[in-house]
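Archive transcription. Copying these from loose printouts into the bound notebook so they stop getting lost. Printout 1 of 2:
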Amino acid sequence: MTNPTIQHAQAFSESQIYAAWGQGPSARYDELAQHFRPVFAKIQAGTLQREQQRILPYEQLQWLKDSGFTRLRLPKAFGGFDATIPELFALLVELAQADSNLPQALRVHFGFTEDVLISKDPAFKARWLKRIAAGEIVGSAWSEGGKESRDQFQTHIYRDPQGQIRLKGQKYYTTGSLYADWIEVGIQDLTGEPASVLVLRQSEGVQVLDDWNGFGQKLTASGTAIFNDVLIDPSEILVDGTRFKYSAAYYQLVQLAIITGLGRAASYELSHAVGQRNRNYTHANSQFVRNDPQILQVVGQVRGAAYSAGAIVEKVAQSLQRTYLAALQDNAEYEKQQNALAELETAQSQTVITQLILNASTVLFDALGASASDQRHALDRFWRNVRTLSSHNPRVFKDRIVGDFSVNGTLPPYQWRIGDVSQDQVLSKAS
């Protein structure tokens, strides 16, 4: 086999080493990634148009399903690829480089896959391995947009007069649910305890709206879902304590992987724009922008930020792999320890990655003229998307958690919720 050519163009080559992003997380990574890179390239070709015209990526998600991307973590016996968590996250970075909306739309699907893989319920595991193997994907419906308390959901299940269990409520930030076959809904169960239930998106009484109005990640379908007396299957009710315990770190790292992919995409677009630019200033350092050392410094800064973010994501993904392996063992204390370490590593990386790529998506304009603000180029989408992603799970809290561990040895919280704090007072008075 001949060595690939070292290249800097925005292309998905046979080896990321030769794009100067470093070696992948395993010896087989490039072989695994090569199966999906033609799909990524096809997706990337239409990303700008979808962004500018607000075209929802139904077709592109189908391409990913057809390629087997949504079953990456499944065993080969179920049509999967036996991908490790570091391999999955490296591929999520590459997909985010192509289109940052798609890995976010699949975020809960991949998280739910972890639930399936570590489940100790044989019937649940067999049922969902079969469904995911068939290409079915899962979306999310957890947050209620400020209406719920921090301890309870308004969305709940109840028994109707015929004794059947039904679901009623409304959710917001339902990322990916518009594209999904199933929706995982956070609920109060029949006893008033927090749980979740899986609902077919096409069930009678389910309505998913395309009303996400954030200025970034516009095509993630993160809007409203309404559940109006939806008949549910009792076997699809999941108790919180049975879920994969590294979920907080896992879901956060997905966001950081997407931010990293956006950094790579920004780097490529900036390099191309600088290389093609013929207009220049009289007080510039060279005739052509592509030879100006100050401009090249900015380009290098942006690419270096993307590289560094990728290295950090891979390191944290290794920690998540350890938590997954720990979950398969019968050692609760060891599992708890690995979960805490994964949460700490994720928290330590969050501010750094966010700041690297937020800054990169800002300074890239310093390498170009005023024409860079032309909406036809949509270069602002990098900052908007990164800013939107980084506003999830505020980094200021993570810095405090890391500091508290560093000084006092305090372990991070296992899980956390968001809600209307005024509702806490209402519930307190009621009790």
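Printout 2 of 2:
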Amino acid sequence: MIDIKFLRENPDVVKQNIKNKFQDSKLPLVDEVIELDARSRAIKQEADDLRAKRNTLSKQIGALMAQGKKEEAEEVKKQVAAQASRLKELESLQPEVDSKVKEIMMVIPNIIDPSVPIGKDDSENVEIEKFGDPVVPDFEIPYHSEIMESLNGLDLDSARRVAGNGFYYLMGDIARLHSAVISYARDFMIDRGFTYCIPPYMIRSDVVDGVMSFEEMDAMMYKIEGEDLYLIGTSEHSMIGKFKGQTLKKENLPYTMTSYSPCFRKEKGAHGIEERGVYRIHQFEKQEMIVVCEPEDSYKWYDKMWSYTVELFRSMDIPVRTLECCSGDLADLKAKSVDVEAWSPRQKKYFEVGSCSNLTDAQSRRLGIKIKGEEKNYYAHTLNNTVVAPPRMLIALVENNYNEDGSVTIPEVLRKYMGGKEKIEIKRKK
């Protein structure tokens, strides 16, 4: 949510930002909210004037009564009564108008950073840099689910019977590899000074409203029937929610935290042939990182955060690249975002495994996260980034470490989490 004062003073900037995001249907909202805001401020001013007049008239009544001027005092009382009726009307009208202002402001997108390329959707995202040499072996690499099934590590059929499509059973060494990745990612971030956290896996609606747009909520969140609770789609939601309504001390900033959680997503929409198996699923586990910091430090942290993800993947010998997300691919609360994509030697292309975003003060305005200043308080900046999200990340891992004999080499950094094991091999039937 942007600052209403900024919108009031810069309506053309806000309208151009909406156009840059190809959301022209929202353009009338700018003029509508300006009109409602003016009405809100007029109501407040009139109410304040009436309260001041009431105080003045009350003093007059007291003075007139002391002088024995009862008739004059009664006339003044009538004025007070008339004003009281109008004040009551205004006091009931104010919340109604303010609610409409807030409703519209929650829909108007955050101002994107000037460096963001203009484009309609993810097809117009811009490659920034490649890390590592993408290799295509001279032997065929099976589909990731076939690899995992051949290693007795994946059972999709049983999961469909138990929970439906979009779920899975991981087993044996593949399940162990999944846990190893999570453990390694946890330790990797702790070594970089982040505080490890396990957050609530459910959050209330006011937190949901604070951390994401209505469109995202509808496409992602599962609601708990009969309760004001939603299953988290990423631990970032409950991690940022941790600071809801708080005024933070400057000396405690920045808050740098890495969190583990299961995640639950509806994953609405059509899914392509390459999104079968464990690529796009309703339940997965994730290591996340968030930062709450001073406004002037947020882009410094932005660059640090995405570089950590690149570093982690490269430590497992997985080639990656970074993509600058274009304007049309940015969710409404994001000012700037970079996707990290891993190399798929089977597909001979990169695919998304993580995303780093700077939301500037959009979330903190919605959630009331402020920093205590010397003269006045001001809103913090919030950022989030995927450290690693298996099992999707496992796709990149098993493909890039697949051997011609059907085995998968375990990256050296993961071996201590797997009892020193170096390979996952096909178990031959005797």
